[in-house]
Design brief:
The protein is of the alpha/beta class. It is 42% helix and 19% strand. Helix 7 links the parallel strand 6 and strand 7. The structure holds guanosine-5'-diphosphate.
Length: 365
C-alpha cells in the first residue's frame, strides 16, 4: 500500500503523533502484505460509507481500507550535507509517496526548541531547504547527462534541458519543485525518474497546544498563510491529546471524549482522510453477507484495473461490472431492491470507477 512519511524538526511532536497512529493500528491479519517495521504505522481509513453499508448488509466481516505512515525522525539543519545521519533520512523520504510535515505551533518552556524559539514558518523552511538542496543535486546530475544529448542535436534532450534548468532556478530560489507550473506528461518525462523530494505531494500538521485545538492559534495561522501558494492542506491538531484519544478503544467512550473537547472528529481521523486524498486515492466497495470491504484505487482507474486490486484473475478475465451508487443502496436497502428499480448500472472495460461505487465484477476464469 501507499506510504506517507512524517517529517519535521526534532521536538515538534512527530513521535507523539506517530504513537497515536500506531495505537489505532489496523488488525494485521487482514492485511498480510503490509510492511511490519517499527517505524511504520498501518491505520485503517475511517469511512462513514462503510458504516452505512455494514448497517444495511450486516455482513460477517467488515474490512476497511488502510494507509501506512512512516516515522522519518532525525531531519536537522545540514541534513543534506550529512548532518545527523541526514542522508539516510533523506533516502527514506525518497521512498514515500507523500509527505506529512509536522510543524510545532505550541509554546512549552519544558520542551526545548532546537532553534530556540517557536516559529513554524522558519521551521518549515529549514526542512524545505534541506530537501531542496538534495533535489538540486539530483537535477544538476541530470542536467549534465542531458547536456550531452542536447549538444549532439537531440531535440527531445534540448526540450528536457530547458525544463531541467527551470527546475534548477526554482530550487535555487528556495522554492519547492512542486511549485513549478508544468503539465503532468512533461513532468513525468523530465523528472519522473528522479523521485524529487520537494515534488512529492505534501500536507502540513500544525501541532498546537490543547487550548487551540478547535480554533488554531497565531502560529498555525502564520503557517497557513505561508503555505497558501502551495495549495497544501494544513491540519490543526494537538498531538498530545490525539495520543490520549487513540488509547480509547470503546467507541462510546471515544465519542464522549471527543465531545468533551468539542471535537466532531479526531485530528487523527482528519489527517488520515486528508492523506488519502493527497495520495489521489479513492475507495470502492464490495458488499456481500460474508464480507463488506473497502478497496483502495487511484483516481481515474478503469473497472478492470480496479478489479485487479482484488485479484489479478479479475482483471485478466474481466467481462463487466455491476455498479451501484451508495445513495441508491441506502434508499432501496438491498441489491435486489436497487436492481428492481433499474438503478444498477452494467459497465464495461472503459468505465472509470467513481469514489464510493459498490462494485460487483463478472469475469471469466
Ligand atoms: P519529535 O522529536 O518531533 O518526535 O517530538 P516528540 O513527539 O518526541 O515531542 C517532543 C516533546 O514535545 C515531548 O516532550 C512531547 O511530550 C511534547 N509534545 C508533543 N506534542 C505536544 C503538544 O501538542 N503539546 C505540548 N505542550 N507538548 C507536546
Amino acid at each position: 500500500s501507499l506510504q506517507c512519511g512524517i517529517v519535521g524538526l526534532p521536538n515538534v511532536g512527530k513521535s507523539t503523533l506517530f504513537n497515536a497512529i500506531s495505537t489505532g493500528k489496523a488488525e494485521a491479519a487482514n492485511y498480510p502484505f503490509c510492511t511490519i517495521e517499527p517505524n511504520v504505522g498501518v491505520v485503517t481509513v475511517p469511512d462513514e460509507r462503510l458504516d452505512i453499508l455494514t448497517e444495511l448488509v450486516k455482513p460477517q466481516k467488515v474490512i476497511p481500507t488502510i494507509i501506512e505512515f512512516v516515522d522519518i525522525a532525525g531531519l536537522v539543519k545540514g541534513a543534506s550535507q550529512g548532518a545527523g545521519l541526514g542522508n539516510k533520512f533523506l533516502a527514506n523520504i525518497r521512498e514515500v509517496d507523500a509527505i506529512v510535515h509536522v510543524v510545532r505551533c505550541f509554546q512549552d518552556e519544558n520542551v526545548v526548541h532546537v532553534e530556540g524559539r517557536v516559529d513554524p514558518v522558519f521551521d518549515k523552511e529549514i526542512i524545505d531547504i534541506e530537501l531542496q538542496l538534495k533535489d538540486l543535486e539530483s537535477i544538476e546530475k541530470k542536467i549534465q547527462r542531458t547536456e550531452k544529448g542536447a549538444r549532439a542535436g537531440d531535440a527531445k534532450a534540448k526540450a528536457e534541458l530547458e525544463w531541467l534548468k527551470k527546475y534548477k532556478e526554482t530550487l535555487e530560489a528556495g522554492k519547492n519543485a512542486r511549485s513549478l507550473q508544468i503539465d503532468e506528461e512533461t513532468k513525468e518525462a523530465v523528472i519522473g525518474d528522479l523521485q524529487l523530494l520537494t515534488a512529492k505531494p505534501v500536507l502540513y500538521v500544525a501541532n498546537v497546544d490543547e487550548g487551540s485545538m478547535l480554533t488554531g492559534n497565531e502560529y498555525s495561522e502564520k503557517l497557513k498563510e505561508a503555505v497558501k501558494h502551495e495549495g497544501a492542506d494544513v491540519i490543526v491538531l494537538c498531538a498530545a491529546i490525539e495520543s490520549q484519544i487513540s488509547e480509547i478503544d470503546d467507541p462510546e467512550e471515544h465519542a464522549m471524549f471527543l465531545s468533551e473537547y468539542g471535537l466532531q472528529e479526531s485530528g487523527l481521523s482528519k489527517l488520515i482522510k486528508a492523506s488519502y486524498a493527497l495520495l489521489n486515492l479513492i475507495t470502492y466497495f464490495t458488499a456481500g453477507v460474508k464480507e463488506v470491504r473497502a478497496w483502495t484505487i487511484i483516481k481515474g482507474w478503469k473497472a478492470p484495473q480496479a478489479a485487479g486490486v482484488i485479484h489479478s484473475d479479475f482483471e485478466k478475465g474481466f467481462i463487466r461490472a455491476e455498479v451501484i451508487k451508495i445513495a441508491d443502496y441506502e434508499q432501496y436497502k438491498t441489491e435486489a431492491g436497487v436492481k428492481e428499480v433499474g438503478k444498477m448500472a452494467v459497465e464495461g472495460k472503459e468505465y472509470v470507477v467513481a469514489d464510493g461505487d459498490i462494485m460487483h465484477f463478472r469475469f471469466n476464469v
